[in-house]
Design brief:
Two copies of one chain form a homodimer. By secondary structure, chain A is an alpha/beta fold. Chain A folds into three domains: about 130 residues, Periplasmic binding protein-like II (D-Maltodextrin-Binding Protein, domain 2, 3-Layer(aba) Sandwich); about 80 residues, 3-Layer(aba) Sandwich (D-Maltodextrin-Binding Protein, domain 2), CATH 3.40.190; about 80 residues, ACT domain (Alpha-Beta Plaits), CATH 3.30.70.260. Chain A is built from nine helices and 15 strands. In chain A, strand 13 and strand 14 form a beta hairpin. In chain A, helix 8 packs antiparallel against helix 9. The radius of gyration of chain A is 21 Å and the shape is globular. The interface between A and B is large, with 48 and 48 residues.
Chain lengths: ~300, ~300
């Protein structure tokens, strides 16, 4: 029984990422869907679901148990404790940037690895209770990142509406469904369907290129595929030019850095830890040698996994 | 009449930063407080305050008008349009990291400069309506950054409480004051006082070192003080090693970089813009030469100001 987790509730983009990830891993394993499974005959159990329904969307997979979590922290701790094998978490969005909570937990609180990445195209929509008209919309609920992704649409069309950040886009849809028809939610079409809402406006996100990169987090990373990426986190000595010296190592070994993200070291203002993604796999000679040197030259170093790069 | 803005409502840490900033600028100008001003005789007008009260805390200053804003965007646009001269905005917190909204607006939407920086020690507290006991607390309101700063306290003490992110810590206190005694807010002692709440627990933030760095944003930056910092934002060409080449410029000129922050370029996943702070002033020879070179070697470049470094 393969056990996986994602950030719930039903109807979030994390659920979509999980579906894509399962499809990829099935293709790799060369398995086809369980065509014998009849409707209503679920291939997954509800054991781990904290009293929620197990999702029908996974019907076609044999021996998979999917659990939705309320917090990212609980989910990652369950991966560490072995209650689930993998968790699908959002890492960064092309408009809003990194999901800081994941970075901080991966750096400081768990010993887990990225095993795979998945990129999901994000399309935000304004969802309302059936019959709601624009002039009745007094407040807009959504996850802070979704609100951030639709700032221009909101300020052009609903500048007077009160913005109410909630924990997820699906949670926002749930609130609107339970409300009195004077609120709207920003969320996915799946959420509209799940909570019986009308889609007042489609594709309201700022910019054309709204993608979120998700990762499957596990206790082990992935073997070399030939088209890989490696993630590390480190802090440098508190000396001028110390970050430059680390990046110089990658330059010397001709390793391309695809991302650098700084987060506070939580010691004092002006001290940071750096999350770096590079091309290549820990089993590549140049990556191994460069990482050995980085480890020597940093005051804190943690390997976060090598995994296949996602092809959009 | 000097007109300033900060992110309201009353009782936020931004208000505290504004007070510190006013004290610094008065000290520099060699002025003492308007000791002649009697209680109730306000030295500031209410003209720009969108119907809110003007704050008594500024009584002692002559010829200052302070306006609180609901959104950072509106405030910065008012600085650009000349409705106010300066806005005090939060830039980064030592536990939670950068305030992304400010970075994105400064890079993409306004042509403003940092004129000064101020560092405020942040102490978060759990605030409740008078008479509320721990077992009655069903939900906790606060700004997402304050929630992030108190994650450990919440999960140890109120793991079952629903977390409700709102726009400000002061707004959270206001909601709790208006509620039925089954909610708590995370916020400042000033907010407790403003909204008549009890302090259920003091200093609940994770870690000892909780500081927020604020900036005064204006249409012009500051002249050289001899102990300065300079901020820029740029994007590099989409080639391997291009960020390294920029940092190499600072290395060649022996300029210390105090901060690097990446944000999405909002074009596609994997494209970033970089916010960099360096030591020195644009009028220093080496900084001027280095910035000229950075400008040449980047596809997008914006100077965000030189200003005196804050001494804690």
């Amino acid at each position: 029984m393969r056990k996986l987790g994602y950030l719930g509730p039903r109807g979030t983009f994390s659920q979509e990422a999980l579906k894509i990830y399962l499809d990829i891993s099935r293709k790799k394993a060369g398995k086809s869907g369980n065509e014998k499974s009849e409707k209503g005959e679920k291939g997954i159990t509800s054991e781990g679901c904290k009293g929620r329904d197990v999702y029908d969307v996974y019907d076609k997979y044999d021996e998979i148990e999917v659990r939705d979590y309320i917090t990212i922290r609980d989910m990652l701790f369950d991966v560490e404790n072995g209650k689930i094998e993998e968790a699908v978490v959002p890492l960064e969005n092309s408009l809003e940037g990194s999901v800081n909570e994941i970075l901080d937990i991966m750096a400081n609180e768990v010993d887990l690895k990225y095993k795979a990445e998945v990129v999901v195209v994000i399309r935000q929509n304004l969802l309302v209770k059936k019959g709601t008209s624009a002039e009745n919309i007094r407040c807009i609920y959504s996850h802070p990142q979704a609100i951030g992704q639709c700032r221009k649409y909101i300020s052009c069309n609903f500048s007077k509406a009160e913005i109410k950040p909630v924990y997820s886009t699906a949670g926002a849809a749930e609130l609107v469904a339970a409300g009195e028809g004077n609120c709207a939610a920003i969320g996915s079409l799946v959420a509209a369907e799940e909570y019986g809402l009308d889609v007042y406006a489609r594709d309201i996100q700022d910019g054309e290129n709204n993608f979120t990169r998700f990762a499957a987090v596990s206790r082990h990373d992935s073997p070399k595929s030939g088209y890989d990426k490696t993630s590390i986190v480190f802090s440098t000595e508190d000396k001028p030019g110390s970050l430059y010296k680390i990046l110089d190592i990658f330059n010397l070994w001709d390793i391309n850095m695809t991302r650098i993200e700084s987060r506070p070291a939580k010691k004092q203002l002006g001290c940071y830890i750096f999350f770096v993604d590079i091309e290549g796999h820990r089993d590549d000679d140049d990556v191994r040698d460069a990482l050995t040197m980085v480890k020597r030259k940093t005051s804190f170093y943690k390997f976060l996994g090598s995994y296949p790069r996602y092809r959009i």
